[in-house]
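Moderator note: this is an archived Q&A kept for reference. The question asked for a predicted structure of one protein chain; the sequence and the answer are reproduced below.
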Amino acid sequence: MKTALLLALSLAVLSAAAQNYSGPAPSAPPLTGDSLQQPGVPEGKLSDKLTITSRIYDGMTSNYWIYVPAQYDPKTPAAVMVFNDGGGYIDRKGSHPALNVIDNLIAQHRIPVMIAIFTNPGDISGAPGTPTYRFVDAYSKKWSRTLKDSMRSTQYDTVSDRYARFLRDELIPAVAAKYNLRKDAYSHAITGLSSGGIASFNAAWQMPDEFSRVISWIGSFTAIQWHEDPSVPDGGQDYPEKILREPHRNIRVWLQDGANDQENPRYGSWPLANIRMANALHLKGYDSHFSFGAGPHSPGEGAAEFPEEMTWLWRGYDPSHTSETYAQDPADAAKPPFRVSIANREAH
């Protein structure tokens, strides 16, 4: 039930006022191998649900969980990975069971020992009258979205450093008060899906000295928060040009999307946005990977390849180091940018 609720939240942009034109929805690939619990693999411990109250978001409250692997030693600082829409990842029998993947890959020494922080979008309903409440309330009424979903979009879809500051200055310190965490960006990763996907990339782009490893599934690199806040000039659809024109960030990025992701008359095209992102990263020499399947706006394909994504993201990690200059794979650099063709209409 928890996974279903989080998935429904992640798809909330498909409101009646902004009809979704996704393609057909093929069945999600089955979860196999390291996505499943394996006999003899030590299991970590998931905390009870915790709550943080944010000053950066004017009294917003947010629930989160902390996952501590069996191999964690308080004497040794652990790597950190943040999961946006975190409640959707913590069911071992759910559609994207991250705990199984973390356990299996740590046991195989394919990823470092890490503390995982599963954070849910916030709730501003308890802070009426604050600037954040007024903005979120106005946004929700303007676009006929719920207050909670509008808070999620404010956090995740806004192209600014605010959400990254919430993570750096509030959430991660709350976890660090209980566990011994690495402080270097080399040891910090972040992931999410849909709006949580752009939020992951945005956190690393805004603060590459805090987060250097990113996985985005079906990322909403679209105009969801474009021009909603007059102080924020850019929208998610501007990120390909920002990659091309702004200074290079030392980040490693895995993008995933599908050909049947949504075409939205208010916000734009998810497949084309992700292809544009992939090409911009490729053209500017980023250490990046693009996985493009046939899926719709769902976590199915991303979840099926999550062990591969995590292995790629953390490849070469050395706990004796605190930094690495990420470089584009020469074999990838030699390949051309991605091209598109029309497959659902008659040729002319």
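Archived answer notes: Residues 1-18 have pLDDT under 50 and may be disordered.
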